[in-house]
Amino acid sequence: MKRIAIFGGTFDPVHSGHLAIARSLVRMFDLDQFVFLPAFHAPHKPDRKPTSAYHRFAMISLATAKDKNIVVSAHELDKSKSQYTFDTLAELKAMYENEKLFFVMGGDSWQDIKTWKRWEEVLTMSNHIVVTRPGYPIDFTHITDTVCKRIVDLRNIDKKDFLKSERQEDAIYVTDAVVFDTSATEVRDDLSDGVLDRTDDVPEEVAKYIEKYELYK
Ligand code: ATP
Questions:
Q1: Which of 38, 44, 55, 197 is packed most tightly, with the most Cβ within 10 A?
Q2: Which domain does 95 fall in, by range?
Q3: pLDDT tens sequence for the chain (217 residues)
């Protein structure tokens, strides 16, 4: 049985925080594969002109070219419509029926989890990994007792102890293995001001790609 993590998001653009999460979780959870799953982005989103799915896919692909266990999937992009995590996870479970799946999200997504379609079911459809994110304290007051019982808090635990505490199915792991304070919004804001102030926030290949194709102007 392979161990596969799925990381959904807009990745507009992929940034060093996303990559730090992928690389740490591959090690920490002994993953065979970590899959970036960029979401289709509704072209009529009111706030700003979306970046083409081709560009978002290409940037993740470039940023992970040397990471053997990290890949990018066009599964959601191929559908040309946005869909709920509930529906995506149902499809992925069918695709990977013999594998152990972990769905990855940041602390901000965890805070909003109750706004997700059929959120309690989503949390039982696979294992989950919640990664701490600066500015978004992780707490459990918003979720039900049933869900709370499945939480395995790995903050301040080392890997040996973690492996002992790993449960069979539908655990919700919380980890502070990565604390990386950046967001795609900050990267876009920097770029539209004409400079990428925080160069560590974007891998070099991605920065070059953005420049070449004049994205986020
Ligand atoms: P935006 O600023 O455009 O909202 P973002 O930086 O949050 O973008 P997304 O593509 O929306 O990036 O995020 C995909 C996933 O990555 C989400 O689960 C989000 O919580 C998580 N994530 C993004 N950045 C971080 C970070 N710095 N630390 C922890 N999790 C993060």
A1: 38
A2: 3-180
A3: 999 999 999 999 999 999 999 999 999 999 999 999 999 875 555 566 679 999 999 999 999 999 999 999 999 999 888 889 999 999 999 999 999 999 999 999 999 999 999 999 999 999 999 999 999 989 988 888 888 889 988 887 766 666 666 666 789 999 998 889 999 999 998 888 777 766 789 999 999 999 999 999 8
**Count of domains for the chain:** 1
Token pair for 83: 């869909």
Residue 111 Cα, ligand 1 centroid: separation in angstroms?
Answer: 13
Q: Is residue 189 part of a domain?
A: no
Mutate to test the pocket of ligand 1, among 60, 108, 180 (most ligand atoms within 8 A of CB): 108
Q: Tell me if 204 is assigned to some domain.
A: no
Residue 47 domain-assigned (yes or no): yes
Ligand 1 mean position, distance from CA 113 (Å)? 14
Element (H, E) at 23: helix 16-28
Written as one letter, the residue type at 155 is: R
Rounded CA gap, 78 and 54, in Å? 11
Ligand 1: residue of 35, 183, 190, 201 to mutate (most ligand atoms within 8 A of CB) is 183
Q: Which amino acid is at 212?
A: K
List residues near ligand 1 (CB under 6 A).
Answer: 9-12, 17-18, 21, 105-106, 108-109, 131, 133, 180, 182-185
Tokens at 54, concatenated: 């081709």
- The CATH number of residue 170's host domain is 3.40.50.620
Cα 74 to ligand 1 centre (Å): 19
Residue 210 falls within a domain, yes or no? no
